Amino acid sequence: MRKSNTAPGDYVEVHLTRKVYEGILLEAPEEEKSIVLLKLNSGYNIGLNKKDILEIKLIEKSKEEKSDIKIKGDSSKPNIAMIITGGTIASRLDSKKGGVTPLETPEDLFRFYPGVFDKVNVVKVEVPFMKFSEDMNSKDWQKLARVTGKLLNDPNIKGIIITHGTDSLHYTSAALSFFLRDLNKPVVLTYSQRSIDRGSSDANLNLQCSAIVALSDIAEVMLVGHASGNDDFCYAMPGTKVRKLHSSRRDAFKVVNSKPFAKIFPDKIEILRDYNKRTKGKVKLDIKFEDKVGLIKFYPGQDPDILNYYLRKKYKGLVIEFLGLGQIASKDSKLGWLKKLQELQKKGIIVCAASQTIYGRLDGLVYSSGREFLKTGVIYLGDMLSETALIKLGWVLGHRNWNVKEKMLENFVGEFNDKLK
């Protein structure tokens, strides 16, 4: 291989005998020094054996970009606040390692997306933590609710935008929906499936649409993101009725068993359904939460003895994803779940049933097995999404004096669709 004056982060051409690759040169791990790693323009990484390379030709040296953008006020525009928590939307490519790494300051985010200032004046930026969403837990949801609640009660702020990772975003949106009582202004959670330094990033449109929703009269906890794979418009989706249904598409989030609140274009908003309107009242925090709750997916042939783990660990409640309209094994003498669930409930564990089918609702009265589980005390949660059910169960159990069944079946923030057949 012909030597060249290149380093990780440089944009190069890698010449093989019959093919030339272009991309960003990456730093190879210690154990793979015989490999040249390259990030292609498509965003994918490839490894090339050094012995097959004729030449690495430098096209452009790496440039370490520095942020010189300051958050500037503009009193002619309405005020909003932003909360940055991490995730892909607050990350950029590490040109030496080939993966994404968190941004270091809020200014870094605004340097890539100055368009967020077109319609709003960002008067406050809070960074309560920087985490990828898979690392978040109930303590993070509570902390986020405290920060959000304080900003919502600031009379100079019209709405809140929260940037967040996608993988567990629907858990966070459900938690904030229950934690923020008497919501008075829009709370908009938004995201990016692709890091902000990529030309195909979805963050720009998502942020622009989020700013429009933050100024609207929709006093709800919402996810705002791409409605399709194109950069045309976004949906404002209810925080308790949304789920990530694709691992990589820009329109990964879909509303389940309900409708979006609105369709948002970069220059306008179209309302699609009823919503709670903004008020001049104060939002109240109710962040009590019981962590000893679990989510189980039933599958055919599953041994009910798995439930002994939750008994030993002193869990307070379980959400079990039932099949179909609300069935799991009940007849088999060894693999039936009926007796074990009776045992759990006698020992104080609350058991709720959610649907595996995603769309539609449970009805335990249709089949005899469902009726048997209903008689044991299992709480059938209709069309409530299982992730939302888990969050709600933890929240309800956090209130020691509440009637759990009564509260789990109460429609607090649109987690049930009462009109769904």
Structure in words:
This protein has nine helices and 23 strands. With 421 residues, it is an alpha/beta fold. A hairpin with an 8-residue loop joins strand 2 and strand 3 (35-40). Residues 65-69 have low confidence and may be disordered. The longest helix has 15 residues, at 138-152.
In angstroms, what is the radius of gyration?
A: 25 Å
Please tell me what the overall shape is.
Answer: globular
CATH level-two architecture of the largest domain: 3-Layer(aba) Sandwich
CATH superfamily of the largest domain: L-asparaginase, N-terminal domain
Structural class: alpha/beta
Overall pLDDT confidence? 88
Number of domains: 3
Strand order of the largest sheet: 9-6-10-12-13-14-17-18
Strand content: 15-25%
Spans where pLDDT lies below 50 across 5 or more residues: 65-69
Main pleated-sheet profile: 8 strands, mixed
The CATH class of the largest domain, by name, is Alpha Beta
Structure, briefly:
The protein is of the alpha/beta class. The protein contains nine helices and 23 strands. It has three domains: 11-60, Roll (SH3 type barrels); 79-285, L-asparaginase, N-terminal domain (Rossmann fold, 3-Layer(aba) Sandwich), CATH 3.40.50.1170; 293-408, Rossmann fold, CATH 3.40.50.40.
List the helices and strands and how they pair.
Elements: E1 11-15, E2 20-26, E3 35-40, E4 45-49, E5 55-60, E6 79-84, E7 91-93, E8 100-102, H1 106-112, E9 121-126, H2 138-152, E10 160-163, H3 169-179, E11 180-181, E12 187-190, H4 203-214, E13 221-226, E14 234-238, E15 242-244, E16 253-255, E17 262-265, E18 268-271, E19 284-285, E20 293-297, H5 307-312, E21 317-322, H6 338-346, E22 350-355, H7 368-376, E23 379-380, H8 386-397, H9 404-408
Parallel strand pairs: 6-9, 6-10, 10-12, 12-13, 20-21, 21-22, 22-23
Antiparallel strand pairs: 1-2, 1-5, 2-3, 3-4, 7-8, 11-19, 13-14, 14-17, 15-16, 17-18
